[in-house]
UniProtKB/TrEMBL annotation:
It comes from the Bacteria. Residues 12-24 have a biased composition (Low complexity). This is Class I SAM-dependent methyltransferase. GO terms for biological process: methylation. Keywords: Methyltransferase, Transferase.
Length: 267
């Protein structure tokens, strides 16, 4: 058990419901790579007096929590990581400097700098998202961040929303350039707050439609590989005024990242 908050954690009733717990080794590698590289996340971890990270709802096995800890320690070697699961049968002994405990959206009394919740809210109704977000955000450290994301079973399609106490900040999509045919194929893995909004008239639908169009127009450079083709497509989207974050360094994944205001539900 990690930190002084654990005594209170034992007396708190976890908030949430037990989900399927599906997980897999290296499933969250794409999001992990982006979390390590994200300037805001790096800054918050480096500035934190007590850099605590919570992996919320890690599933039936703790592999992705252990992987997250190993990757984020490249940013801050002394950070603490706790995996929380609402199902007591999934709570395992600590290992490799990572602790595990029972907890839900209330975060078991912890006050982390960063919370990752992947494939958790996907199993809830859309109407439950605002309350779940509010509960997690209300229990963060003052400058804390929440990552609410979804991915497929093999981690080839990955999408997440980054939030702070003010609400959503950005949406990011990342996918395997060699197995995903077009950007909109990731729509089935959008976070719960957006997955039902991929219909005409909604901003997320307009973004994915524009991304597919730019991808098709970049077909002449396909001979240089899908990563290069996506870079050309993304630069074309940016030239149209879409506020994409353009990654200048070599990327292993195709990544599309925009401010939340650009994709927030229209109604």
């Amino acid at each position: 058990m990690a930190g002084s908050g654990n005594a209170g954690a034992l007396s708190r009733r976890p908030v949430g419901t037990v989900t399927r717990g599906t997980t897999g080794v290296n499933r969250l590698r794409r999001s992990d790579r982006q979390l390590v590289a994200d300037p805001l996340i790096r800054a918050r971890l480096l500035d934190a007096a007590d850099p605590l990270v919570v992996d919320l709802g890690y599933g039936a096995q703790p592999w992705t929590t252990l992987e997250l800890a190993a990757r984020l320690r490249a940013v801050r070697p002394d950070l603490r990581v706790t995996g929380l699961e609402i199902d007591p049968e999934r709570v395992v002994p600590g290992r490799d400097g990572v602790s595990f405990a029972r907890g839900g959206f209330e975060l078991a009394g912890l006050r982390p700098t960063l919370v990752r919740a992947f494939n958790v809210l996907r199993q809830y109704p859309e109407s439950a998202v605002p309350e779940a977000w509010a509960t997690v955000l209300g229990n963060l450290a003052p400058d804390g961040l929440l990552v609410d994301g979804t991915c497929d079973e093999l981690g080839r399609r990955c999408a997440w929303i980054l939030l702070d106490r003010t609400g959503p900040l950005t949406l990011a999509l990342a996918w395997d350039p060699f197995t995903v045919e077009r950007p909109s194929d990731i729509a089935e893995r959008l976070p719960k707050a957006l997955i039902h909004r991929n219909v005409p008239g909604e901003p997320i639908h307009a973004l994915l439609t524009a991304a597919d169009r730019a991808w098709a127009q970049a077909a002449p450079v396909a001979t240089f590989g899908p990563r290069f083709r996506w870079r050309v497509a993304a630069e074309a989207l940016a030239a149209q005024g879409i506020p994409l974050r353009i990654f200048r360094r070599r990327m292993r994944d195709c990544v599309l990242s925009v401010p939340w205001a650009h994709v927030a539900p229209a109604r």
